[in-house]
Amino acid sequence: MIRFWYGKKGRRHHSMKNKYNLITTREDINSKQGTTIKTELEPEVFRPNLSDPSELLQVEQIEKLTKCLPPRTIGYPWTLVYSTAKHGMSLKTLYRTMMGLDTPVLMVVKDSDGQIFGALASEPFKVSDGFYGTGETFLFTFTPDFEKFSWTGDNMFFIKGDMDALAFGGGGGEFALWLDGDLYHGRSHSCKTFGNRTLSKKEDFIIQDIEIWGFE
């Protein structure tokens, strides 16, 4: 718009408002057309390589467990060290398969109710006079949904093994997870070491299958 005005000597002057150019970007066009531009990619889920197919874990369960593993295991394939399907129901055999390992081990238990739960041990299972392990050790359950129970710092009763039983956690007179020497009977209870609830549906359960995985 142009406006005229007259000064003292009758001279005509004019002033012009600043002009602006409207720049239309591709994003504006896409927005007007209702097009959504995806600027972030979904994070890629890391799926480890398994030496053998797991008979107990589904793909989505493996993915959830992978996210919880200690950093020193990431990038290594999962190696099936022991399974009741291959090696039979024997704690003595379980200990024997651990010999020579230098890696955390993941124990997966399936009970007669079809429930899946277990533990990540910071070192291979062995016969011991007392408790061993570190705060890397944790418990988990998929009953009814996935839940991880990490070390609370309350005590250091991580893992204990002899020829009669394998146990995790302690405090208050109860183990978080206990398996007998025949790998037939098991028991789960809340404990101070991990602040966990009962991992199985019932405190006492019958073991159906076990898998133990190493990372090397």
Can you put this structure into words, describing what you see?
By secondary structure, the chain is α+β, with helices and mostly antiparallel strands. Helices cover 12% and strands 29% of the residues. The chain has 4 helices and 12 strands. The protein has helices spanning 26-32, 59-66, 84-87, 91-98, and strands at 2-6, 12-16, 78-83, 105-111, 116-121, 138-141, 147-149, 159-161, 165-168, 177-180, 185-188, 204-215. The strands form 2 sheets. Strands 3, 4, 5, 6, 7, 8, 9, 10, 11 and 12 form a 10-stranded antiparallel sheet that branches. The longest helix has 8 residues, at 59-66. It starts with a strand and ends with a strand. Residues 1-10 and 13-43 have low confidence and may be disordered.
List keywords for this structure.
two-stranded antiparallel ribbon; ten-stranded antiparallel beta sheet; 216 residues; single chain; alpha+beta
How many distinct helices?
4
Largest sheet: 10 strands, antiparallel
Radius of gyration based on Cα positions:
31 Å
Q: What percent of residues adopt helix (DSSP H or I)?
A: 10-25%
Structural class: alpha+beta
Q: What is the number of beta strands?
A: 12
Average pLDDT works out at 86
**Strand-and-helix sequence, N→C?**
EEHHEHHEEEEEEEEE
- End-to-end span in angstroms? 78 Å
Beta-strand residue percentage: 25-35%
Query: What overall geometry do the principal axes of the alpha carbons give?
Result: globular
Task: Pick out the low-confidence regions.
Answer: 1-10, 13-43
